[in-house]
Amino acid sequence: MLAAMNSTAISSRMGLAQWSMLLLLSIVWGGSYFFVEIALLEWSPLLIVAVRVAIATVVIWGIVLAAGLPIPRSRAAWSAFLWMGLLNNVIPFLLIVWGQQEIESGLAAILNAAAPIFSVIVAGIWLKDEPVTRARLLGAALGLIGVAVLIGPSALAGLDANLLAQLAVLGAALAYAFAGVYARRFPRMNIDPIVAAAGQLLMSSLLLIALAMVFEVPSQILDSSARVWIAVVCMAVFSTALAYILYFRLLATAGATNAILVTLLIPVTAVLLGTILLGERLQWGHFLGMIVIGLGLSVIDGRLWQRLRRRPQAPSP
Asked: Considering its fold, how many domains does the chain have in total?
């Protein structure tokens, strides 16, 4: 499978399998905002991220070993895992959790939804098969507007305050964009997507555990409530281990720009899950926001608009 990926350029369009992975990824990744809010009641940002990544590392390496997947031994591969871990775990996780101490999760989701715009630009500069196009920029911008409409004006009310926290979340979105571009090297190195996820999580956990041992107090973990532990374990298993398996498979088949579209869908799935599981009611702004997000995604994908342009025109009388 990886050899086939290497021999052909990655398509800028996604099929049913890629869209399904993107939707599932938005569900498991979107839950992390909720879990972070619970964990911040008792833990510091560094402790949350360190324990989250450490548990996820154990889970995903258990999958790798049970499946008997080949583990790369080259220095180049492990160097790539280190850089990917910094760009995709250490930097964005710490920035988002730190930012959520000062701003609401809704505003954090809006700011993090800027990632597709950053990704279009970064991928266009570094990747020949994902050029910057007006359609991609327009689609990403429409998606960001749709996220803002979906979450509503209440989340935007704090936009003038806590500037550093907002810049931190935007910095995380930029880190995700660079991570998506950097991760494109793993298929070329014949590294399985699950192994790539496991490698970057291992390197991330080593860095974060070292930082936590220096700056955190171990008793903080022992004195934690059950709800915090449940939130962190769910964040590790579902929003990290499972999420990165999906993320790396999506990167390998759909490219960096398409994979990062998950940040536009996360608020949509959060609203729908709240409606289904918590009995919350959908407002007109929810529907409008989803329509605008869907419009943005269709512009980036491009197929619907090409079909409309190719539709034969009726002969004039």
From this structure: 1
